[in-house]
Structures are given as C-alpha cells and as structure tokens.
Write a structure and sequence with these properties.
mainly alpha
C-alpha cells in the first residue's frame, strides 16, 4: 500500500499543472494527453509507469523557453510543476480507484495542461 501512496502522490502532483503563477504565460497554455489505456493501474508496475509518463508530461508542459535560464525562470517552472501535479490528482486518483475496484475494463487518458 505504501508504494501505491507514493505512486499516487507523484501522479497526482505530476498531472496537476493546470495553473501557472504568472498570468503572462496563460496565453501560452500547453497540454499533453498521457495515455493509460495500456496500463494495469491495479498493479504497482502500472501505477509506477503512469507516474513516469505524467512526470514527463508535466516537465514538458512546464518547460517554456521564453522564461529564460535565471533563478526567476527556474522558480516559475517549479511553480508550474507543483500546480500542474496538484491539478491532475483527481483524474489520476479516480482512474486508479476505478482500476482497483474493477469498475472499468480499460483505463483512460490523463490531460496535463499548463496555463
């Protein structure tokens, strides 16, 4: 159960990049669909694989080249990552719970969006 909690927390945080702290970047919203259809989310391995995919998507949507390379840019990207991960938590949690209770035959997708 502890590996589920760890994987779930990471997935939830990773998919939560819906809002950026800077309104200036809101017009540059980026979104990636992370598929989970091929994963067994009732298993540790499936949840870990989804976590990896979500982390990658969060990193990608929060990487904005016009932010520059300074400390402010690093802070903005980290803030984006944290908020994005927080925003996807409900999607991922619902998918995992459905898979574990076998309420669904297949898993869906997770939408990771940064604004």
């Amino acid at each position: 159960m502890s590996s589920f909690n760890t994987a779930a927390k990471v997935m939830f945080a990773a998919v939560a990049a819906t809002f950026l702290s800077s309104a200036a970047h809101a017009a540059d919203a980026r979104s990636i669909t992370v598929t989970a259809a091929d994963l067994n989310l009732a298993s540790d391995a499936g949840r870990e694989r989804l976590t990896e995919r979500v982390r990658g998507a969060v990193n990608e949507v929060c990487l904005v080249s016009d932010w520059g390379a300074g400390i402010d840019a690093q802070r903005a990207m980290e803030s984006c990552r944290q908020k994005t991960l927080a925003s996807v938590t409900p999607q991922v949690e619902a998918m995992v719970q459905a898979a574990q209770s076998r309420r669904v035959a297949t898993n869906g997708d997770v939408s990771v969006t940064a604004h």
